Amino acid sequence: MSSSIERTDVVIVGAGFTGLSAALDFQRAGVDFLVLEARDRVGGRVEAVRNGLGELIDSGGQFLCQDMPELMALAKARGKTFVETYIEGEFITHPWMSVEEAERTYQVAMAIRERMNRIEPDDPSIAGLTVATWLKRQKDTTDAKAAFRSMIEGLWCLALDKVPLWYLIDNDRRITNEVFELQYFLRETMQSLADDLAADLGDRLRLNEPVARVEHGPQGVRIVSARGVIEARAALIALPPATAAKLDFVPALPAALAGALGVWESGAVIKILVRYAKPFWRERTLSGMVMWRDQPGLFACDASKDADHVALVVFVGGPLALRWHALGEAALQAEITARLVQALGPQAADIVDFSVRDWTHDRWSGGAYSDLVTDVTARDAERVILAGAPPVHFACSELSPSFPGYVEGAIVAGRIAAQKIIDGASASWTSRA
Prior knowledge:
433 residues, alpha/beta, 8-stranded mixed sheet, 6-stranded mixed sheet
């Protein structure tokens, strides 16, 4: 047998927050493991880059709130500095509405969301319905429906006619924050938290090592990468479902599992940080928060760290992100700037730095915060993937019982998966030892 074959207990594929959280739990439990990450960094959909001013900024997942217990505890334990998102003042909807009208439209849009969430996901009357079809049947005003659509396409980053109603209800019910979900961000960046976790793993973590093949059988797994072969008792595939589906499994996964992985689609999002010299919107008693009703999925808010780092973050989600992805950077900047000027006035054009991260079609994580089920009949997809095909197991934020599609959900999913493998191992691994 080749001497280049390594052995370990568990191979974790993917070093986003799911993989990192699972790895740390294995480490605490004394389970041997290796983490293989295709990118040259950890964090997955969390990322930090230098902008044109040389400042380190969050170009991926950034925000957290006090209703996310795992992430809050982790950030506190690692000594991170919480910056409270500025939300004082008027919230702008564009095209313009009076404050009262905007407030009323927002309240009705939230009421539509609450009405939707009161429906049971397995209610036979919604079988086969997409969110778009259901919304069309509601008797609310056109403005309220447009606001609801903009909110949902901005959060889930996919066209409403692609999303099964039962799936959105089931997914949204698990997002349980009662405070503003953009309540805080970390001065040091969310990426710094992923880097801290990675540092604790030492040489058990390997970057730039995409997995080419996962061979599996009753005796365990063989993970084949460009660097060689690793034999393990189990594998944890800590990737979004649509990315996991692209892996080469030998033999092929059971048909039901392969089918369950195949019903997911990545959303699309472009994230932009626009730096200014001063927070001109605050001087006009505006919060900096803008929702464009004529461009569903376009949203901005204040992301200033302090007086020396004044910024708006702009999110372009869903079908709009796919359309604007084709523009190229100069045209995209012109488009965004024009929209900000429309909503916030001419000072919005006085930009100090414009930093774009286009996540659409991202090679390793899809295109947005989360993959979504797009097959209205795939009611069992999550359950089937979570059951896995031992010794091959799956975990990702999308499958989390709390905050799916968020960093909080990724941490929870990783910890649950690790515990399940540890519990299963204590019996089977000792009996084979």
